[in-house]
Amino acid sequence: MGKTKVQEAVISLINEALPEIKNVDTTKDLITEYGVNSISIIKLIVSCENMFKVSFSDYELDISDYKTFDDLIERVGKKLDEQAGERRVIGGIEYGR
């Protein structure tokens, strides 16, 4: 799955999980620009886990690991790449070999 598709899917999740955030710019600072807190990032990560069928460790739930939404998108992309040997369809999008 390419970064663009992951980015589009994560933005969709942001809109659902954090509806108070309007006009998402994935490069802006989560805390200063959007007021995201540790509860909000965990909520978003759980949504990503459910959509993409990936798992985040307890250590990966720390908001300090995510300065921007792009950081989360990159992390999801890496997790998907790790599973790329499997052919899967998630959210109507096919990825893998």
Produce the secondary structure layout.
Blueprint: H1 3-17, H2 30-34, H3 38-52, H4 69-82, E1 88-90, E2 93-95
Antiparallel strand pairs: 1-2
Helix pairs in contact: 1-3, 1-4
Radius of gyration: 13 Å
Tell me the structural class: mainly alpha
User: Could you tell me the strand content as a percent range?
Assistant: 5-15%
Query: Strand order of the main beta sheet, please?
Result: 1-2
Element pattern in H and E:
HHHHEE
What is the mean predicted local confidence, pLDDT? 88
Provide the low-confidence segments as ranges. none
Q: What is the tally of beta strands?
A: 2
Distance between the termini: 10 Å
Q: Sheet with the most strands?
A: 2 strands, antiparallel
Q: Looking at the structure, what is the overall shape?
A: globular
Helical fraction: 40-55%
Protein described:
With 97 residues, this protein is mainly α. It contains four helices and two strands; from the N terminus they run ααααββ. It has helices at residues 3-17, 30-34, 38-52, 69-82; strands at residues 88-90, 93-95. The protein has a two-stranded antiparallel ribbon with strand order 1-2. Helix 1 crosses helix 3 and helix 1 packs across helix 4. The longest helix is centred in the N-terminal third of the chain and has 15 residues, at 3-17. The mean pLDDT is 88.
Offer a quick outline of the entry.
With 97 residues, the protein is mainly alpha-helical. The chain is 51% helix and 6% strand.
